[in-house]
Amino acid sequence: MIALDIETSGLHPDQHSILSIGALDTQNPKNEFYEECKIWDDAKISEEALEINGFSVSAATDSIKQSESELIKKFVAWVIPLESKSIVGQNSSFDRDFVRSACKRANTLFPFSHRTIDIHSLVWLHMTNRKLEPPTKEGKSMISLTFALMYCGLPSEEKPHNALRGAFAHAEVFSRIAYNKKILPNYLSYDIPWQL
């Protein structure tokens, strides 16, 4: 399983660009990937997206940085040898769709399947199996990554959001929910609440 988190210049993969990719092989947690890039030519930039991920316009357009095409080719090369090429993450279809669009722009192989594993769904199912009521507001689920971390006994995510730290958080939540097991050294001191 590949815990994946991507920072982007906006919400639409056909209009916005990848800015960074963070990933972790959950079967070998020491095998991680993190790199940044500049936006592709004519990609749009959303100020709201930059507020979340902490990139500035100048960082997103820095001509010294590698292109999105170069980044996605490096990421695909990292993915190819892995045994499991399934994606796990919070809102994992968002990340998958950005990778797919970047691969198309770079004319390179898209190594993932269409199906992904979403942290939100795992936490919702785990809570309902424990007879707990998942949080909602106006009839909509409020299981954010922050909620998922706290539910699993972990500290809130640092701000601004970072793709590699996001991938670590996804991997740890996934492992705790799916296997009742801690996997990352920086989370070992945090107990799994339902095992107490």
Keywords:
2 domains; two-stranded antiparallel sheet; Nucleotidyltransferase, domain 5; alpha/beta; 196 residues
What does the model show?
The chain has 196 residues and is α/β, with parallel strands linked by helices. It has 2 domains: 2-116, Nucleotidyltransferase, domain 5; 118-195, no CATH class. It is 37% helix and 15% strand. It contains 7 helices and 7 strands, in the order βββαααβαβαββαα. The chain has helices spanning 47-53, 57-60, 68-79, 92-106, 119-129, 145-151, 163-179; strands spanning 2-8, 18-25, 32-36, 87-89, 116-118, 136-137, 140-141. Strands 3-2-1-4-5 form a 5-stranded mixed β-sheet, sandwiched between helices. The protein has a two-stranded antiparallel ribbon with strand order 6-7. The mean pLDDT is 96.
